[in-house]
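Fig. S4 source data, part A: sequence.
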Amino acid sequence: MLFGGSGVGGRPELYTSYDADMALFNTRAKLWSVQGLVLLAALLPFVLADDLLVLLSRAFAFAVGAIGLNLVTGYAGQVSLGHAVFVGIGAFTAAALSGDPDGRTLGFGLPMIVWLPAAALLPAAVGALIAPLATRLRGLYLAIVTLGLVFIGDHIFREADFITGGFGVGRPGVVASVFGVSLTDNGPSMTGQQKTYFFALVVLVVVAILGRNIARTAVGRAFQAVRDRDIAAEVIGVELTKHKVLAFTVSSAFAGLAGALLYTITRQVVPESFSLLLSVQFIAMILIGGASTISGSIAGAVFLTVVLRLSEELSRFFSFIPSPGQQGGLLNTAQVSTILYGFLIVGFLLFEPRGLFGVWIRIRNYWKGWPFSY
């Protein structure tokens, strides 16, 4: 069910049926706010510069991966530090299938209609193969196992240079096209950055709807039961192995799709990009945005991407931070960015554990009760 109506007697959160409560947009305010945000996002390419559109496009791609990680970690409670591996598999799958068959690296020259779904399916298959091993563990032990995946993946990406292009070299970007229209070349009406932005926005909307539907259905409720108390969930009939494997599989598919999308936006993919640091960034996105929320995943990805980009401007105000590409100084911009999102993680965990989603709930509840404080 798409929309659950406006409750009873004008009370938006009072429902008389289960379907109305579980609707995709169970209040009119949610429906209107989502439509307004999508409309605003669709208008931005006509008012923002191309460099800002590239930044937002990357944020949308990160949001796709963050939604996948939130499903397995936030909803299913399976702590994963290996998300970067699946993002890398998706990126290099897209690179190999779309690459030049006559180039120095593996390429098949296939169209987007083939390599984009494949970039999600192959990581999903890898996740499904790894998941049965991971499902035997939980908590810190599971985190250590998925951490090992990062180092295994990093080694493979660096050594398999006939696919990845090799350390420090990588592969050039793909000339992506939809229905014969190139997403990377400038056209008479839109630039390549504008077309790529719209493509990233459409993919994000589709993935967000899929993620929300998974979270609100029986599968999502089973995920949350496993997260809250797995033994009790098994007692009431929830198949632990089945749902843990499903959570890893779906999460890996979304991560691979994010990798292919990033590869399309940045037009360059290098093996060293998919390190432990990228996995920590995804963890930061769901913690800052809000665990167990699809909207929080998007908010966290956009917020962190924009804030880290703003941190690169600190060199204008502090002499001990050199500009990007320059040598010397006490800290470079990459180190400043790492320190910054480390502080953000600690700050949100201490003062707002529910992330930006929790901040929004506080603001909403304040205005719903205003001028009364109770």
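Fig. S4 source data, part B ends here. The chain has 15 helices and four strands.
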